[in-house]
Every structure is written in C-alpha cells, then in structure tokens.
Amino acid sequence: MILSVDGVEFSYSSRPVLKDIKFEVNRGEFFSILGNNGAGKSTLLKCLNRILKPQTGTILIEKEDLFALSSREVARRLGYVAQRYESTRFTVFDAVLLGRKPHIKWGATARDLEIVRKVLAVLGLEEFSLRYLDELSGGELQKVVIARALAQEPRVLLLDEPTSNLDLKNQFEVLKTVKKAAREQNIAAVVVMHDLNLALRFADKFLLLKNRTVFACGGMEIMTPENIAGVYGVPVAVERLASIPVVVPL
Ligand SMILES: Nc1ncnc2c1ncn2[C@@H]1O[C@H](COP(=O)(O)OP(=O)(O)OP(=O)(O)O)[C@@H](O)[C@H]1O
User: Fold this and answer.
1) What are the angstrom distances between the C-alpha of 25 and each of 32, 154, 189?
2) What are the extents of the domains in the chain?
3) 37 lines ligand 1 (CB under 6 A)
4) How many Å lie between the centroid of ligand 1 and the Cα of residue 144?
5) Are strands 56-61 and 64-65 parallel, antiparallel or unpaired?
6) What is the pTM of this model?
7) For residues 244 and 141, what is the distance between their CA atoms, to the nearest angstrom?
8) pLDDT tens across 157-194, in order?
9) Does the 3-249 domain belong in CATH 3.40.50.300?
10) I need a labelling partner for 45 at 20 to 30 A (CA). Which of 22, 66, 82, 97 fits?
11) Do the Cβ atoms of 147 and 91 come closer than 8 Å?
C-alpha cells in the first residue's frame, strides 16, 4: 500500500465538503475518483497534496504522515496536476524540466535532461520543445503539465481531470501513458475523472463520492448499474462492447 486515507473530514470555513473519507491505494494502481459536480473530488485531491489540511483524519504516504513531511519530501513523493493552470513564458522543455526540481541539487544533470526528453517523446511533444507555453492550444498545454508531473517521477501522481481539454486520441494516449507509468514505475496514479467510460477502460480501482462521503470503493465489481445510478441519479446499463465495459445512460 502506498497511500492510506482514514477518517478525513474537510470544511471550507463553515461549509463541510468531505466527511469520513477512507480508502487505500496500492502501488502500480490507477485509482479513479468519481462523483457529481461539487461532490468534493478536487478538494480531496488537494488534501492528498497537502494544499488543504483536513480538520480531522490521517493521510499516510508510504506509511508516513503526509503532514509531518518536509515540503521538499512532499514534492519528491507527490506529483500534482490541477484542474486549472496558467501558461507562462517558459518553453515546453523548461516547463517539463521544472518537474525535476525536487530532485536537482545544483543544476540539471544529463539524467534529468534525458528524463525530460523521454517524457516529451512519449507524449508526442518533441516538436513543441522550444515553443512557449502561451503559444500552445489548451490540449497541448494540458499534455505539457502532465509531462511535467511524469518527469518528476513521483511515488503518487495526482491528476485532476487530466483529459478535460483533450481530443479522443490524446485522451487515450495520456491515460495509457499514466497507466504505463503506474505499472512500470510501480507508482500510484490517483485520477479525478468525469468520463465513466474512460474510467472503466483505464482504472483498476474506483472511489465513488456522494453526499460528501464514500458511496463505494473497490474494483470493477462496484461499478454496477445500481451504484452508478445511485451516485449520478441517472439510470444506466453497463454493457460490454468488443469486451470493453461501457456505461450507457438509459
Ligand atoms: N475555495 C473554496 N471555498 C469555499 N467552497 C469551496 C471552495 N472550493 C470548492 N468549494 C465548494 O466545495 C464543494 C466541493 O468542490 P470541489 O471542487 O471539490 O468539487 P468537485 O467534485 O471537484 O467538482 P467538479 O466535478 O465540478 O470539479 C463545492 O460545493 C464547491 O462549491
């Protein structure tokens, strides 16, 4: 187990958003967080990245209390891609190299540069290497911020709706890359998603959030029509098409 969350509660001033959140994520796992708009998914991800501090509960990363770690240690262990981000006057290469910052002591080494080149190649961003971020399309920029998080080589990768700006091909490529990174580097990817079909296709485990708390958590066995309808309030069928599970609203 790489991440363990127990009894987490969070409120924005007096507005309670999360209560009694409990789940575990294992190494190598693609873990999808699902739920309606406003269910608290982004808030939960921010608690996992220590941007927000839960009022109660514990979050352990590799058995250590997340809130007892130094900022540098957090940056080494956790990679985070927010739902919204701004483009800056960096080149794509430099922006991805920034992901290596928690590992760099004096200056970037040949290994750091190699990692950046590799990640850019995997995500098909090589040709954009020297372009400035503010000259990219929304989807290209989204791939760059994911590339930066992958270059960081974190133990846990936290992604908030990583495919929201991507076309069909890029949605698949990005999620495939994340899944491969989880498997090959034996890290965990915790991904907030809206597209149930993409979640079914790529995730190993699912956390369904409803009414501020965990509605269900587990593998494919919890993605039943009853649970999905219970969370989203829409009747659905879960079918297999070319042996791929798909959710169809009825
Ligand atoms: N900074 C904030 N201050 C006060 N309330 C907030 C703040 N950020 C979010 N909220 C509220 O907390 C609740 C959960 O928000 P959150 O962004 O975590 O939901 P979400 O599940 O990620 O939603 P979405 O799917 O729409 O992105 C919402 O009711 C939202 O209005």
Assistant:
1) 10, 15, 9
2) 3-249
3) yes
4) 25
5) antiparallel
6) 0.94
7) 30
8) 999 999 988 999 999 989 999 999 899 889 999 999 99
9) yes
10) 97
11) no
